[in-house]
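Consider a protein example.
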Amino acid sequence: MKTKEAGPGKLFVVGTPIGNLDDITHRAVETLSGVDAIIAEDSRHSRRLLDYHDIDTPFTLSYYQGAGEDRREELINKLLDGYDLGLISDAGTPLISDPGFKLVREAKERGVDVIGIPGPNAALTCLSISGQPTDSFIFDGQAPKKEGRKRKYFEELRTRTRTTVIYDSPHRIETTMELLVEVLPQRSITICREMTKEFEQTVKGTPSVVLERLRKGELKGEFTIVIGGATEEEAARARREKYEGVPIEDQYEGLKKLRGLSRKEAMRELARIRGVSKRDIYEELNK
């Protein structure tokens, strides 16, 4: 058994399959076989993966969303006592829309080496086959649950020019798609469902086309949604519509006071926000 005299152990953050159990690297199998114990969200769920790959490493405390400070402290103490631990999530790369970042942050602060073992990720896998621009994108995690917040979120996407990736659940996907039809009717989107599993499905098109296709099947499994960005023209038009009823003078003075901008800087920023030219701003303010 390792002791404190041996120095701190290592924390390995290990990517595991998002569906197909064969989608795991040799290094991940070797790592999980070699650590002293495995930290999982749900050991009952992860046991199937370990049995499939003949990994007999025991589990230690599970670490899930909402795990208390005491549980995290006990895991940190194991690492400080010299134990090597492997951190896995129920599926995919840990910490990507999953719990664990506080454990990793504290481990690093306490002098523990944290080593990443790359593996599958639903967001990147769906993005890579979506046909949407991938040179610059934003991952926003889980879509807002409440309809009002979700509507506001999609309204904000009207001015976003970069590709957006979000996750959604089977219980809310229909409402999500209905709001996309309403708020972003012409935007190109791609939805991936049950990725790498037997009934994997990928649908691309406008929100109305995708919703129609989804309704023909069963709305089961976890969903990844890739939303194409707005063109510069679409984003500018959306900004103009958003601020159409806001007095330009008030917004100009607010920018200067709240952000400490000079006259020239405030006019430039106001032109960007409202989707118009600096000349338009100048002429409006000097009427």
Notes: The domain at 123-233 is CATH 3.30.950.10 (Methyltransferase, Cobalt-precorrin-4 Transmethylase; Domain 2). The mean pLDDT is 90.
